[in-house]
Amino acid sequence: MSGRQGGKAKPLKKAKKPQRELDEEDKAHLEKLKSQKKAAQDMASKLGKGPLAGGGIKKSGKK
């Protein structure tokens, strides 16, 4: 126990991973994922903000 040392010790920083080179196949895959994500966002914006599931069992106030 030395002096004012208290609490957790700070974790050491990890070394950064080197950026790997992307070949044509990887680039095409990433582009496909981007286009799918954009299409999903477009569809969501077109649908608007309404209830996704409709109906179901409706209960009346009577017993």
From TrEMBL:
Membrane-spanning parts: none
Pfam families xref list: TMA7
Superkingdom assignment: Eukaryota
Region annotation (Disordered) ranges: 1-63
Biased composition, class Basic and acidic residues, residue ranges: 18-34
Classification via InterPro entries: TMA7
Biased composition (Gly residues): 51-63
Protein name listed in UniProt: Translation machinery-associated protein 7
Native source species: Pichia kudriavzevii (Yeast)
Organism classification: Eukaryota, Fungi, Dikarya, Ascomycota, Saccharomycotina
